[in-house]
Amino acid sequence: MEMARHAFNYMPVISEIERRNKALFAFLMLTGARDGAVASLRLKHINMIDGCVYQDARDVKTKNSKTFTTYFLPVDPEYLTCFKQWVTYLNRDKLFGPDDPLFPPAKIKPVEGEFKVVGLERETYKNANAIRSAIKEAFTRADLSPFTPHAFRKTLVK
Q: Which residues are registered as beta bridge partners of 52?
């Protein structure tokens, strides 16, 4: 838990993508959700009032296609604060609706002859590769051994 908190603290929040990645890290600490499911979550699956995620197998890539509810775990309050700020940002600033992704991929377009991030897509990730990469980068940035999102599940269980 201490290593995760250390990596979380080292994550920058200057760009929109960096804020997304930090919220993603916080969400994994709050829920221990599988990375494949996280990649397919939409805003409609999040209930901030009850502090839970409804993983509806009709739209979320859950293990064995099972539908279930995951409640936020009582971990460091900084994780919940970060995640709440992200959800608020998507709703208020980006005007995302219930069917938009919780952790949208970067929208990349050519700008002056170079490909640049110009915003966020309104579709979910096709797989969890980018999620794994963001978590690995967080630990590497903090000069720690890289962990996978699945390691969060094991840590939270212990």
A: 47, 71
Q: Whole-angstrom Cα distance, residue 32 to residue 23? A: 13
CATH code of the domain containing 108: 1.10.443.10
In Å, how far are 18, 58, 59, 104 from 148, measured between CA atoms? 18, 26, 24, 19
Residue 70's domain spans which residues?
2-157
pLDDT tens string 13-54: 999 999 999 999 999 999 988 888 888 898 999 999 999 998
Structural domains of the chain, count: 1
What average pLDDT does the segment 91-97 reach?
A: 96
